[in-house]
Amino acid sequence: MLRTARFRLALAVAAATGVGLALPGAAWADTARNEPPAGATDDATYLVAALNGRNEVPGPAGSPAVGDRDGRAVEVVRIKGDQLSFAVRWSGIGAPTAGHIHLGAAGVNGPVEVPLFGAKLPDTLTAAVGTVTVADPSLLESLRTDPGRFYANLHDADFPGGAVRGQLHKVTHPVDLNAVLRGGPLAAILDGGQEVPTPGKRTGDPDGHAVAFVRAGDDDVRFAFSWSGIAPPTDGHLHQGGVGANGPVAVNLFAAPGGLPASLTGVAGVVEDVRRDLAKKIGKDPTGFYVNLHTAEFGGGAVRGQLFRSGAGAAAYQASTVVAPVLKGAQIYACTRQASGSYAYTQHNVRARLAGGITHSFVTDDAGPPRWVARDGSAVTGTVLSRTPNGAGNIPELDLAATRIGADSGLLAGVVEIERLNTVGGVAPTGACDPATRPTVAVPYEADYVFLA
């Protein structure tokens, strides 16, 4: 039954929209715009940034406020031809009002080079994907060859000068941009033909298609949509009602009266404070509910689809690209005899606790490799691909290839590459040491780890 449900969903998506699922990884991929088909050669360039408020740089006196200290985001960029596709997920900030790529090295403000979107997003959203066309080939070449000269940031109402920011870095593996639109146990295949006429309102866009995933918690509903062939959505709803009948809105998933930014092709989010009895009913009897998207042209509903069980399971909602800052961590160094006969501190291990319940250490003291373990049993080790200096007193930033060593599902199961970014501290003490009096030393450090699915 599980295989049948997954196959049904994958076939329906491929046939209806050209959007394919990466099962069992629980993320879909837009093969036409954001991702290559499975097995295809991908000659695109992929970039990633870990955004936080600390990275924002204040402007001159009187400039708009910058730097939300609670804010975090991860952004993945794909460049192919003149198309720049992006995926961004955020937390700890207000609803983004704009997303940009700027020219500027770390610690320096610079001009906007690529506007990704420029309108306030609905409060319930936590992620978005989209594509913009960049007409300047020299700009795209600079992004491909020297991404560290550019940074991504998000603005919100409280921090109009920039809430979170992060320098761009090139990654080695192709990355599923739509992994930020995480899957879930409930899914729907939407099109205009499933809409039921509403008196006085236009319904059913004949060119429209979409895919949706839903997860009903105890008192919240998580959702994601990816669409094509429709104008920018103005509303996303979860209705109670069977096939062929209109029903009342059970959960208002998002509202964008002026339409979402035209560059977006998908969004994800969460609605909190849902009645517990309603959330339970959605999870228990999903076929009694449907989701739809409205547009300005089709106010009665542009596309609609009935919910069904996708077979992916609730745990699949966790399989995604994530950024996890170090909550408490230290680089561990041991006083080691050198070839010259003297003693100096060398890397011994690392001990860190990351957001999301991830722990970080070496598999074996001194020899490694580095290992990350999630609470759900998924785990990976890393092999260093490159090191990038990050200023005096800070350990270098790292790009690592990931190898799965834990469970085949869960938070880290689909990770192919790891970036250690925004490093602060952690450098080994210099000079000679005495193994008898101080055999090891723990040096505190900060960093953002990006786990790329």
Automatic annotation (TrEMBL):
<keyword id="KW-0732">Signal</keyword>
<protein>
    <submittedName>
        <fullName>CHRD domain-containing protein</fullName>
    </submittedName>
</protein>
<feature type="domain" description="CHRD">
    <location>
        <begin position="43"/>
        <end position="173"/>
    </location>
</feature>
<dbReference type="InterPro" id="IPR021851">
    <property type="entry name" value="DUF3455"/>
</dbReference>
<feature type="signal peptide">
    <location>
        <begin position="1"/>
        <end position="29"/>
    </location>
</feature>
<dbReference type="Pfam" id="PF07452">
    <property type="entry name" value="CHRD"/>
</dbReference>
<dbReference type="InterPro" id="IPR010895">
    <property type="entry name" value="CHRD"/>
</dbReference>
<dbReference type="Pfam" id="PF11937">
    <property type="entry name" value="DUF3455"/>
</dbReference>
